[in-house]
């Protein structure tokens, strides 16, 4: 189960989405499925991530990454590419964070056949639940400009369903990881 809410973004002419749910797995297992690393599990289970590459590793916890998405919504939405600065952090309480925001990078000029999208400050928190080592609160924030010429009504109808699908598919991926 996931609760999704939204409000107008202060960053661009779209919405910021907040999603919160509980996943039946440890924070480490959830993190293993969502962490933004090349060759990671996310390209296997997340229907909105076709490819993920690290363009430049700035530090162990900071990198510039390119994410590509497949076409969506019965091909109404063309494939997208996003170039982001990504930060990964683990806090003393065991919370793990992946945060990102769009950047330009000389090694990532726009590519043909992809529409350049922009992630404004966004991220996922894997939060341990006290006394429940096999459950994780996942708190996510998304504010994505898909770019191109999509009417905002199409984008607004796409995102909540996409986010609930993310949580549903993550739950399945975690179960497969534990099996």
Automatic annotation (TrEMBL):
InterPro entries: StARD5/6 (IPR043556), START-like_dom_sf (IPR023393), START_lipid-bd_dom (IPR002913). One of its GO terms (molecular function) is cholesterol transfer activity. One of its GO terms (biological process) is cholesterol import. It holds the Pfam family START. The keyword Transport applies. Keywords: Lipid transport, Lipid-binding, Transport. It comes from the Eukaryota. Residues 1-179 form the START domain. May be involved in the intracellular transport of sterols or other lipids. May bind cholesterol or other sterols. This is STAR5 protein. It comes from Aegotheles bennettii. The lineage of its organism: Eukaryota, Metazoa, Chordata, Craniata, Vertebrata.
């Amino acid at each position: 189960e996931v609760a999704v809410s939204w409000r107008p973004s202060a960053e661009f002419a779209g919405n910021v989405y907040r999603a919160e749910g509980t996943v039946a797995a440890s924070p480490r297992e959830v993190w293993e499925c969502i962490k933004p690393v090349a060759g990671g599990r996310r390209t296997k289970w997340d229907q909105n991530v076709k490819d993920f590459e690290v363009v430049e590793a700035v530090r162990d916890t900071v990198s510039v990454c390119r994410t590509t998405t497949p076409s969506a919504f019965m091909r109404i939405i063309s494939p997208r590419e996003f170039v982001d600065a990504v930060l990964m952090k683990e806090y003393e309480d065991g919370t793990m964070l992946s945060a990102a925001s769009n950047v330009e990078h000389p090694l990532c000029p726009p590519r043909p056949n992809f529409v350049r999208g922009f992630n404004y400050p966004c991220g996922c928190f894997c939060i341990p639940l006290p006394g429940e080592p096999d459950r994780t609160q996942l708190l996510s924030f998304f504010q994505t400009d898909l770019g191109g010429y999509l009417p905002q009504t199409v984008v607004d109808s796409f995102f909540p369903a996409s986010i609930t699908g993310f949580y549903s598919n993550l739950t399945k991926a975690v179960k497969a990881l534990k099996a």
